[in-house]
């Protein structure tokens, strides 16, 4: 009798549309305009610090344009290279976007982030501002790629990278983060530890877009792998930021290798092409890497799907935007974390020599690192002398 009454009640509720109302209300809680996700997104991107930094970057628009302006000769060179490019039809594979900048634009967070996927600290934002202002004033101090300011080595994870997964991180996010971390871990001295109780740690969570802070900022810092970011390459890219890397196209010597085609860049994405701060970064003498996982694709930030970055050697056009951690990416991190001189453990400070060729540093050993076999002798010219001596002295002819 009770079962019959219950069945009758269910039929009445269904016919009255009660379940439909409940379903819609539950759906709205998670996906509607007043959803939990929207509120969390608002909390993350509308806090005072983020808004202040966003406003600071917006005020730099005209100055950034000035730094990206091309000379008449550069314009001619760019036109010649563009004419050589083979037109490639781009087919969107994923609804959420096929690249980090596409995903973040569709998620409506790209405009709030520096260079499309970075959250800056206030100090870092000040350094970017100083860099742009100095360049427009004609300054020419060295600018590099890996984050290295006065707080270094406190900005590296010298005792290992601690992380934990937020409740929002599903199985796919957890899997790609671990695999992305492994891409950095397997050929460096950097280790990752899942530890929610650690003082300094990365919170991996699902928020709108794919983004991270640069370097260790202290305490708990966020790394988002939102909808569309569930790939190993995307996770490895954001982890690269958390380890201390800016984008490759931010290097001081970028303009020797690629040209930024301002004509195709979205007006509100100009900061994606700023060069990095003059006194806070280091390339360790390593050559420009078109295939770096930290390099955006050739049509990144384009409003018309046409190239925004064009290499001087157009053979490398389709190399830009690689989803794989490259050898040079690993080389930068191994130097940044002092892996070559600390027997496989992140060191407090890289040891560098200023001695001239033929004058070897104290404690010198005539022994090549295992990676020299991968490099090959032809790469000696791509490394600065400090690296040749510390990494591959035998192969490069120092002993």
TrEMBL record:
Record flagged with keyword Cell division: no
Cofactor note: Binds 1 zinc ion per subunit.
Coiled-coil portions: none
Positions annotated to bind Zn(2+): 237, 241, 247
SMART domains listed in its UniProt record: ZnMc (SM00235)
EC number: 3.4.24.-
Lineage per the UniProt record: Eukaryota, Metazoa, Ecdysozoa, Nematoda, Chromadorea
Entry annotation: catalytic residues: 238
Protein name: Metalloendopeptidase
GO molecular function: metalloendopeptidase activity; zinc ion binding
GO biological process terms, semicolon-separated: proteolysis
InterPro entries, alphabetized: Astacin-like_dom, MetalloPept_cat_dom_sf, Peptidase_M12A, Peptidase_Metallo
Cross-referenced PANTHER family: DISCOIDIN, CUB, EGF, LAMININ , AND ZINC METALLOPROTEASE DOMAIN CONTAINING, METALLOENDOPEPTIDASE
Keywords: Disulfide bond, Hydrolase, Metal-binding, Metalloprotease, Protease, Signal, Zinc
Signal sequence region: 1-16
Domain Peptidase M12A: 145-340
Cofactor section: Zn(2+)
């Amino acid at each position: 009798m009770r079962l019959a009454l219950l069945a009758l009640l269910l039929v009445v509720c269904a016919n009255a549309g009660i379940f439909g109302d409940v379903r819609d209300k539950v759906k709205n809680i998670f996906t509607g305009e007043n959803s939990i996700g929207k509120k969390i997104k608002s909390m993350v991107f509308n806090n005072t610090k983020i808004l202040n930094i966003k406003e600071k970057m917006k005020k730099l628009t005209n100055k950034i344009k000035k730094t990206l302006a091309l000379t008449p000769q550069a314009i001619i060179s760019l036109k010649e290279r563009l004419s050589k490019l083979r037109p490639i039809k781009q087919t969107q594979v994923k609804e959420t976007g096929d690249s980090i900048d596409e995903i973040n634009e569709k998620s409506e967070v790209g405009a709030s982030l520096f260079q499309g996927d970075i959250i800056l600290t206030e100090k870092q934002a000040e350094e970017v501002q100083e860099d742009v202002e100095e360049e427009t004033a004609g300054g020419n101090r060295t600018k590099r790629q890996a984050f290295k300011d006065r707080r270094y080595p406190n900005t590296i994870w010298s005792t290992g990278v601690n992380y934990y997964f937020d409740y929002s991180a599903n199985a796919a996010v957890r899997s790609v983060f671990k695999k992305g971390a492994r891409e950095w871990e397997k050929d460096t001295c950097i280790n990752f530890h899942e530890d929610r109780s650690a003082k300094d740690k990365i919170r991996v969570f699902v928020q709108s877009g794919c983004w991270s802070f640069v370097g260790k900022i202290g305490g708990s810092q966020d790394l988002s792998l939102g909808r569309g970011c569930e790939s190993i390459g995307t996770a490895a890219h954001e982890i690269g930021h958390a380890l201390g890397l800016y984008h490759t196209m931010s290097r001081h010597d970028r303009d020797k290798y690629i040209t930024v085609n301002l004509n195709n860049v979205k007006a509100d994405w100009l900061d994606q092409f700023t060069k990095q701060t003059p006194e806070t970064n280091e390339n360790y003498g390593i050559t420009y890497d078109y295939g770096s996982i930290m390099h955006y694709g050739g049509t990144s930030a384009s409003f018309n799907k046409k190239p925004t970055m064009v290499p001087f050697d157009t053979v490398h056009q389709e190399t830009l935007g690689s989803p794989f951690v490259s050898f040079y990416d690993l080389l930068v991190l191994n130097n940044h974390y002092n892996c070559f001189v600390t027997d496989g453990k992140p060191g407090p400070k890289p040891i560098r020599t200023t001695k001239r060729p033929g004058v070897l540093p104290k404690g010198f050993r005539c022994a090549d690192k295992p990676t020299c076999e991968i490099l090959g002798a032809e790469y000696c010219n791509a490394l600065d002398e400090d690296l040749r001596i510390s990494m591959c002295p035998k192969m490069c002819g120092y002993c």
